[in-house]
Design a protein that fits this description.
The structure holds 3 protein chains of 3 kinds. The termini of chain A are far apart. In chain A, 36% of the residues lie in helices and 25% in strands. Chain A is built from 9 helices and 12 strands. Chain A has a 6-stranded mixed beta sheet, with helices on both faces. Chain B is mainly alpha-helical. Chain B starts with a helix and ends in a 6-residue tail after the last helix. Chain C is mostly helical. Chain C has 9 helices and no strands. The chains are: A alpha/beta, B mainly alpha, C mainly alpha. Chains in contact: A-C, B-C. At the B-C interface, helix 2, helix 3, helix 6, helix 7 and helix 8 of B face helix 3, helix 4, helix 7, helix 8 and helix 9 of C.
């Protein structure tokens, strides 16, 4: 009922990064990132290892505390507020979590809770965050599991599932939070090659439904087909960004060119 | 707090302290050896050996040391075993701690991957070379830390020997308490002395663990 | 040579002592679990002063003999005007002692939880308490159950020391009767067997619960 904005006139900004900087001690990982992510769009972030792409994503839901710049979600700065003197101060964790109520992340390692069944995992946000009554929560969780094709494993425990199945359950769990923005942190990197497809398919369906998605990925095929915008990160800076057709077919930056060359030589003709 | 009491009772407390160290060292040494014997027994085929090993472990790990000490000290004379308190003390510590050491040895030997021994054999290394160069170094890394932990437990348990008047430091401190009608001074000494002793052993354990397992860290 | 008829005649007293041992031990374990849980949370918290307090407490109680701790609680607290019944002193001391050990056991359990699980809880929107209650605690308890069972066995064994502050537990009863009947062998062997029975029972129950709880 809340997703009707993307068709009519201009979509609003979902996530805005302004001069975002992140350091670990002396090591600066993000060196001033400016990025606009529109509601209903799919943004893929690509780049080599150590380029800072995962850190960038993790800054959006404050799993990493950034030092300078801003992360704005629907116009609201995440993690920081102003004290009486107008200085920036870190907000308490519980408050930050409230600000992030419309953002949810899917992890490389799935991070399902092994002591809870598949159904209980998906019910967790419904029961323990939103306080939905049991019967209703169960029904909704089953709907979501059906959506990702995992309803037949509702009573199973996560560790008995394949990686691809676990990741689909993890996506269903994230959806149970009813987020407007979903962050995917290399969702298929921990999967055996033959299991990648089932996860990408679910993600593609989500994109078609108009979910705002930010995806850190090595799957260039997915990035090329599904995304509205591709961002290439190198050494903590945005090296190039634009529509996938432009980035993949006519890359202007030499770094992106060599990145794509390495990638296609490694993945051969299959790509 | 009356620190002058320490001047008067210092020598007695110190003597008790050295006696605790002495009893524990003897108990440790005997326990290490007897534990090895027990471990070797556990390897023997045959139900009798196996039952003996299991029964030993259950008895010495499943009952309080206090009961073991009382049984030997007060019950011993009735079957012709009139032993001195000191002897009973050392013996009980050794018998008791050996039950734990035997299991530590076992887990140490069992955790070595079989493939390593096969590789050594394949390369033409002799049994003895394999044992000295391959098995023992890794074993020690696995065994030393839990053995030292068990030693810490044993040092604390040795306070129990005061109930049969072994002249170790708890006995000395209790005597000080009853003679001077003080509580704080003797027990403060005791707590600190045991803590320091165990702290020292824990430091050694840490050091050994770091030395012995450096190859496990990247 | 051995004559257990004396023991049989006094079986009710011994059983009563065993009930005292078991009751005090289990009650102390339960109290110690609560205390140990709180201590563990302090030990892994982000506040340096809390961590410091927890470390000192844990180190002091793990580094000194229980016998000494018992004497301190039983003889020292009255000096502060806090006279305790032997039974209360025993329970307090055992609970304080085991809380330090249980705190370290639980901390070990927390350390084995992958960080990603907490990150998932964060992104889902679970707060600190709910993450602890629904995600961490169930797993930590399951993972540390074998160690907690061992700790329970240790406390049952160590509780024999409360006989030194005149609690009429199994040990104390055995001592009393062995000195009045001159039958120490029989009484201490019986006491040993009864301790063995209690510790074995805990071990068996522990393994059963472990099997039931595995996922």
């Amino acid at each position: 009922m809340t997703q009707q904005t993307h068709a009519d006139n201009t979509p609003r900004t979902a996530v805005e990064l302004v001069k975002l900087r992140k350091r670990y001690d002396d090591n600066e990982v993000l060196k001033g990132i400016d990025l606009n992510i529109l509601e209903g769009q799919v943004t893929c972030i690509i780049g080599g290892s150590g380029s800072g792409k995962s850190t960038l994503l993790r800054c959006i839901n404050f799993l990493e505390v950034y030092q300078e710049g801003e992360v704005n979600v629907f116009g609201k700065t995440i993690g920081y507020g102003m004290d009486e003197q107008g200085n920036r101060e870190l907000l308490p964790k519980s408050l930050v979590q409230q600000e992030l109520s419309e953002v949810c992340m899917v992890f490389q390692q799935f991070n399902l809770w092994p002591h809870l069944s598949v159904l209980e995992n998906v019910m967790a946000p419904l029961r323990w965050v939103k306080g939905v009554p049991l019967a209703q929560a169960k029904q909704r969780a089953l709907e979501l599991l059906t959506k990702v094709g995992m309803e037949h494993k509702a009573e199973a425990y996560p560790l008995s599932l394949s990686g691809g199945q676990q990741q689909r359950v993890a996506i269903a769990r994230s959806l149970a939070k009813d987020p407007k923005i979903m962050l995917f942190d290399e969702p298929t990197s921990a999967l055996d090659p033959e299991l990648v497809g089932e996860v990408l398919k679910v993600m593609q369906e989500l994109a078609q439904e108009g979910m705002t998605m930010v995806v850190v990925t090595h799957e260039m095929g997915f990035a090329a087909q599904v995304s509205d915008q591709v961002v290439f990160l190198a050494e903590g800076k945005i090296e190039e960004q634009g529509p996938p057709s432009k980035l993949f077919n006519a890359p202007s930056s030499p770094k992106l060119q060599s990145f794509l060359e390495t990638w296609s030589s490694r993945n051969g003709a299959a790509a | 707090m009356d620190f002058s009491l320490y001047l008067e009772f210092g020598p007695a407390l110190l003597k008790g302290f050295t006696y605790t160290v002495y009893v524990c060292s003897l108990g440790l040494l005997l326990g290490l050896v007897w534990g090895l014997v027990l471990y070797l027994i556990s390897l023997r085929p045959g139900a009798l050996w196996r039952w003996f090993y299991r029964g030993y472990l259950a008895t010495f790990r499943g009952t309080p040391l206090l009961v073991q000490v009382y049984l030997l000290f007060y019950g011993g004379p009735f079957i012709g075993l009139s032993l001195s308190a000191e002897f009973v003390g050392v013996l009980c510590l050794a018998l008791y701690v050996a039950a734990y050491f035997a299991e530590i040895y076992r887990s140490g030997f069992e955790s070595l991957a079989k493939g390593q021994l096969e590789a050594a054999q394949d390369l033409g290394m002799s049994r003895i070379t394999t044992l000295v160069k391959i098995q023992l170094p890794q074993m020690l890394a696995l065994i030393i830390p839990p053995c030292l932990n068990q030693t810490i437990i044993m040092v604390k348990e040795s306070a129990i020997l005061s109930v049969i008047t072994v002249p170790e430091m708890t006995t000395a401190a209790v005597r000080m308490a009853t003679q001077t009608f003080t509580v704080v001074e003797p027990y403060l000494f005791l707590a600190l002395a045991y803590w320091c002793l165990n702290f020292a052993i824990a430091k050694v354990a840490n050091y050994c663990e770091l030395r012995a397992t450096h190859y496990l860290r990247s | 040579m051995l004559d257990f008829s004396v023991v049989l005649k006094n079986a009710p007293a011994l059983l009563e002592g065993a009930m005292m041992t078991l009751g005090i031990s289990l009650f102390s374990i339960a109290l110690g679990f609560i205390g140990g849980g709180l201590l563990c949370l302090a030990r892994i918290s982000a506040k340096p002063w809390l961590v410091g307090i927890a470390r000192v407490y844990i180190s002091a109680l793990r580094g000194t003999p229980l016998l000494v701790q018992l004497a301190i609680v039983f003889y020292f607290l009255p000096l502060l005007g806090l006279s305790l019944e032997p039974v209360s002193a025993a329970i307090i001391t055992l609970a304080m002692n085991t809380s330090a050990f249980q705190a370290e056991i639980l901390r070990g359990g927390f350390q084995t939880l992958p960080r990603g699980q907490n990150e998932a809880a964060w992104t889902i929107g679970l707060g600190w308490w709910k993450t602890l209650r629904y995600i961490q605690m169930p797993q930590v308890v399951r993972k540390t159950l074998p160690s907690l069972v061992n700790e329970t066995i240790d406390i049952i064994k160590n509780s024999a020391l409360i006989s030194t502050i005149a609690v009429t537990d199994l040990m104390r009863i055995a001592q009393t009767y062995s000195s009045t009947t001159y039958r120490p062998l029989e009484f201490f062997i019986t006491a040993g067997l009864m301790y063995l029975l209690m510790t074995s029972a805990v071990a068996v129950v522990g393994r059963w619960v472990e099997r039931r709880m595995s996922y």
